[in-house]
Amino acid sequence: MLPTTADVIVIGGGVMGxxxxxxxxxxxxxxxxLLEKEEFFGQGATGRCAGGVRYQFATEINVRxxxxxxxxxxxxxxxxxxxxxxxxxxxxxxxxxPQDVEVFRRNVEMQHRLGAQTEWLAGDxxxxxxxxxxxxxxxxxxxxxxxxxxDPNSVVMGYIGAAQRLGVRALNNVEVIGIQVKNGKVxxxxxxxxxxxxxxxxxxxxxxxxxxxxxxGVNIPITPLRRQxxxxxxxxxxxxxxxxxxxxxxxxxxxxxxxxxLTGMSNPNEIPxxxxxxxxxxxxxxxxxxxxxxxxxEGAGLASRCAGLYEVTPDAHPIYGKTPVEGFCVVAGFxxxxxxxxxxxxxxxxxxxxxxxxxxIDVSALDLARxxxxxxxxxYNVV
Length: 383
Ligand SMILES: Cc1cc2nc3c(=O)[nH]c(=O)nc-3n(C[C@H](O)[C@H](O)[C@H](O)COP(=O)(O)OP(=O)(O)OC[C@H]3O[C@@H](n4cnc5c(N)ncnc54)[C@H](O)[C@@H]3O)c2cc1C
What we know:
single chain, 383 residues, alpha/beta, eight-stranded mixed sheet, six-stranded mixed sheet, 19 strands, 28% helix, binds flavin-adenine dinucleotide
């Protein structure tokens, strides 16, 4: 039976929604309701993401989010009771353009100042660390040993289970189709199963957050953009400690996945939209670029492939907090790196809902109003 009222409704059961639900319950707000339109939780961007977690970003706010969020993933088993398989293989950014070298030098200085110990690598050191790759053009690189990979499904299941044990109701197959607003205040939601009233509604609908915003008459500038990856059959040549490698100029990445390799690449010509089918023509572009960097891939077979949606904002930073409709909040728009910031974002949203302000990190500059007030924040380090 669908409840008819709740204190807080969270729309979307991806990493953001489940983290908010857990953090609200952990703070004592148990009459929260999580609504997910799909049959299972975590089938949106979260379930299709590459699972990468990193400290290496180009803006202070993103580094600060990582400095809080990644330790939460390290402590996940102890705090939430679920193993999430954090593999600290490190991210190794390969830089092949002089202008990127300059920007990354400044980024590394900023990361050091904030306490993220990223290493600077000379071109020869990059080649020495990656003997299986063809890297004649590498000018330099950066490496952070605690960057790595975490299992997205385990994080979602861990938060859902913990939230439910604390009393949260989490429902699948419930699609929000309208948002009720009265006198400028949110009053509840319409779903495919009936109406539910609530004084607080959180839009955690990921790539669909713009559509959900429209239901309340709020413009949330989030563009869905397809991104995809593939995995290979086993490649025994790849060492167990092979890092998450990013050829920054090509937006091409590789990491170990099971006994094979996962590779993905961003299509600069992708047209915004909700298509989640693999683009086979671009898959070939990805494969060619990957083989030319790592010739041994020529002999590998295709094991699996996946396409999903980035949730891109005009400045590639997320949107946190209030909207012009009182009680209607948003946490979305992580622009391709939101999985890793899910834990801290749920905590921050619980703070703004229960305390009226962000406590752990001040993310108030990442408000929705910045787009109208021209206060954009640029992130150079988007993959
Ligand atoms: C190919 C790919 C690779 C990526 N790699 C990484 C990576 O390595 N590291 C990283 O940190 N991030 C990565 N990301 C980004 C990351 O996946 C997202 O930033 C993050 O998962 C966003 O989480 P979310 O909860 O906001 O969105 P989602 O996981 O999409 O959750 C939103 C949920 O809302 C539900 N929903 C939508 N509308 C409604 C409605 N009307 N009613 C009810 N429910 C609704 C959807 O079904 C969905 O389950 C990647 C993304 C993609 C696509």
